[in-house]
Automatic annotation (TrEMBL):
Family from the record: Belongs to the methyltransferase superfamily. RsmH family.
HAMAP family the record matches: 16SrRNA_methyltr_H
A GO BP entry: rRNA base methylation
GO molecular function, one term: rRNA (cytosine-N4-)-methyltransferase activity
NCBIfam families (UniProt xref): 16S rRNA (cytosine(1402)-N(4))-methyltransferase RsmH (TIGR00006)
E.C. numbers: 2.1.1.199
Cellular location(s): Cytoplasm
Species name: Candidatus Chryseopegocella kryptomonas
Top enzyme category: transferase
Keywords attached to this entry: Cytoplasm, Methyltransferase, rRNA processing, S-adenosyl-L-methionine, Transferase
Descriptive protein name: Ribosomal RNA small subunit methyltransferase H
Length: 311
C-alpha cells in the first residue's frame, strides 16, 4: 500500500517575505499545486491570486481548498509559460509578484503517475495527462543516443551511455511499461553503492523531458518579467541544480547593465538593468523544516525585484 503524503508548502515564511510587496494588487502563483503558498498570500493580504497548474486534478483540489476566498482567486488549468498571454486574455496588465514552486506535488506522487522509483507503476510521468508523450514512449521509441542524451543532459548521470545501451537491449525483447522494469534495467548496470543516486538522476531526467520542464521555466521567467510591475518580485523555489542554474542565470542577465566587451570604452549595447537580485545566495530550509518535510531538503529559493519599467 502506497503511503499518502500531505503536501506541505516549502519555505513558506521565506516565500512570503520575498514575494509580498503590497497588500493589494495581483499575485501569480505559476505552480499552484495544492494551493499552500497561495492560501498564505490570501491570508496575509487583500490581494488577488491567479493560479496556474497543468494538472487538471490539482486545479480542482486547489479550487476546493481556496473556495472561501471567492473572486479573490482564479485558478487556470494552463502552463505557466503562457502567463503573459493568459493575463492579457483576462485584461490584466501588471502583477505584483510571480511565484514558482517547481516540481511535482505530493498529490501527484500519490496518483500513480510513475514519478518515483520507489513505487512500481506505469511509466507515465506526465503532469498534464492531455499531452501525448509519456516516459515509456521516450524509452521505447527514441534512439540509443537520444536516450543517453536525455539521461546525461537532464540527469547529469555519467553512466548515461551504459544505461541507454541496456534500455535498448531490454526493449528488443519487450516494451518498457513500468517503473519497476526501468529500476531492474538500471540495477543491472549500476552497483549498490550508487544505486539510489543513479535512480534519482534517471527518473529526474525523464520527468524533465516528458514535461519539458526546463523550456517551460525559461519561457515562464521571460514571460513573467514583462508583466511584472516596477517593485514587483519574482520568487522561484527549485529542487535541482539544472533548474537553479536557469533561475540564477536569468536573474544575473537581467541585473547586468552593459554587456559590451571591456575594450569598447563607451557603452554601445544599450542594455539596461531590469532587476535587482534580492538573494545573493539561494535561501535553503533550516534543519527543523527538513525534518518535518523531507521534500524540502533540496529546495533553493531565489528572488529578484524589478526596478525598471520597460516600454
Ligand atoms: C510542487 S507543486 C506546488 C505546490 C504548491 N506551492 C503548494 O504549496 O501546494 C508544483 C505544481 O506545479 C505544477 N506544474 C509543473 N509544471 C507546470 C507548468 N509548466 N505550468 C503549470 N503548472 C505546472 C504541477 O502540476 C504541480 O501541481
Amino acid at each position: 500500500m502506497m503511503e499518502k503524503t500531505f503536501h506541505i508548502p516549502v519555505l513558506l515564511e521565506e516565500t512570503m517575505k520575498y514575494l509580498i510587496t503590497r497588500n493589494d494588487g495581483i499575485y501569480v502563483d505559476g505552480t499552484i499545486g495544492a494551493g499552500g503558498h497561495s492560501e498564505e498570500i490570501l491570508k496575509r493580504t487583500n490581494a488577488k491570486v491567479i493560479g496556474f497548474d497543468i494538472d487538471p486534478k490539482i486545479v480542482k483540489i486547489a479550487q476546493e481548498r481556496l473556495k472561501n476566498y471567492g473572486d479573490r482567486v482564479l485558478i487556470l488549468n494552463r502552463n505557466y509559460a503562457s502567463v503573459k498571454e493568459s493575463l492579457k486574455e483576462l485584461g490584466i496588465e501588471k502583477i505584483s509578484g510571480f511565484l514558482l514552486d517547481l516540481g511535482v506535488s505530493s498529490y501527484q506522487l500519490d496518483q500513480g503517475g510513475g514519478f518515483s522509483y520507489r513505487f512500481d507503476e506505469k511509466l507515465d510521468m506526465r503532469m498534464d495527462r492531455s499531452s501525448d508523450l509519456t516516459a515509456s514512449d521516450i524509452l521505447n521509441e527514441s534512439s540509443e543516443k537520444e536516450i543517453a542524451d536525455i539521461i546525461f543532459k537532464f540527469g547529469e548521470e555519467p553512466k548515461a551511455k551504459i544505461i541507454a545501451r541496456e534500455i535498448i537491449r531490454y526493449r528488443q525483447r519487450k516494451r518498457i511499461e513500468t517503473t519497476g522494469e526501468l529500476v531492474k534495467i538500471i540495477d543491472k548496470v549500476v552497483g549498490k553503492k550508487y544505486r539510489l543516486k543513479v535512480l534519482a538522476r534517471v527518473f529526474q531526467s525523464l520527468r524533465i523531458a516528458v514535461n519539458k520542464e526546463l523550456d517551460n521555466l525559461k519561457m515562464g521567467l521571460e514571460s513573467a518579467i514583462d508583466v511584472l510591475e516596477k517593485g514587483g518580485r519574482i520568487v522561484v523555489i527549485s529542487y535541482h541544480s539544472l533548474e537553479d542554474r536557469i533561475v540564477k542565470n536569468f536573474f544575473k542577465s537581467n541585473e547586468k547593465k552593459c554587456i559590451c566587451p571591456p575594450d569598447v570604452g563607451e557603452c554601445k549595447c544599450g542594455k539596461v538593468q531590469v532587476v535587482k537580485i534580492l538573494t545573493k545566495k539561494p535561501i535553503t530550509p533550516k534543519e527543523d523544516e527538513i525534518s518535518l518535510n523531507p521534500r524540502a531538503r533540496s529546495a533553493k529559493l531565489r528572488a529578484c525585484e524589478k526596478i525598471l519599467e520597460l516600454e
